[in-house]
Design brief:
By secondary structure, the chain is α/β, with parallel strands linked by helices. The chain contains 7 helices and 5 strands; from the N terminus they run βαβαβααβαβαα.
């Protein structure tokens, strides 16, 4: 309803952002859905998932931004085809090649600009610290610091809070919470490599499959390979 407070929700199309969107709705916010095309390998499929999720949650506003400078900058296997997407190694403590340098800071900056124009009072992002492949811009400290940037860099009357409801979750927690909220997991896409069927072999697929396995549920999206991660 128009009387609801508005939140900009970052929707990549993956299961984390879908659950984050559901939480924003449960917490009483109208949705302004934001998606970024940054030259990633699965850009087309992620965009489809974004529109499906935005439609499902009756987003009041929808914005897709082209940030293809990430592909020009390179440095990530998601945006540079010369860098292969690594096979899953969930136990690794090394930042993987799929890390897109400082991506979330760029995304949040765009979200803040749009939120200030719309009069939104919150930004929801489905960042996960414990189970996020070790990305440095998925840590709570990063979002705490960026909150200070927002407070200092917007108009005095602007008050926008960063909300990271999944930050302490594991993928199992996310799957379970999503089931409780009726999240349409079949609409989501997490694979780093393929647009037709999820590869089942990249870090993102592995973390997702393990989360569903540990939650005792079947992942509803199609996989080219469906290993069991315990």
């Amino acid at each position: 309803m128009p009387s609801e407070p508005l939140a900009v929700v970052l929707i990549s199309g993956g299961m984390d952002s879908a659950v984050c969107t559901a939480i924003a709705r449960v917490e009483g916010y109208g949705i302004a859905a934001l998606h970024l095309n940054y030259g990633q390998r699965t850009q087309e499929r992620e965009l489809q998932a974004f529109h499906d999720i935005a439609e499902y949650y009756c987003a009041r506003h929808r914005l897709v931004v082209d940030v293809s400078h990430f592909a020009l900058i390179g440095g990530s296997s998601l945006t540079d085809t010369a860098i292969p997407v690594e096979q899953a190694n969930i136990a690794s403590t090394v930042i993987p090649t799929s890390y897109v340098p400082f991506r979330n800071a760029n995304i949040l900056a765009i979200a803040v600009s749009w939120a200030e124009v719309l009069g939104a009072i919150a930004i929801y992002i489905g960042a996960v610290e414990e189970d996020s492949s070790g990305y440095p811009d998925c840590r709570k400290e990063f979002y705490d610091a960026f909150q200070k940037v927002i407070d200092l860099g917007t108009k005095p009357e602007t008050h926008i809070a960063i909300c990271t409801p999944l930050i302490t979750y594991t993928k199992k927690d996310i799957v379970q919470r999503g089931k409780e909220l009726g999240v349409p997991f079949h609409m989501t896409w997490s694979c780093y490599k393929r647009n037709d069927r999820a590869c089942g072999e990249c870090d993102s697929c592995a973390l997702r499959l393990r989360g569903f396995y540990q939650a005792g549920l079947e992942d509803p999206i199609p996989y080219a390979c469906r290993p069991v991660y315990t």
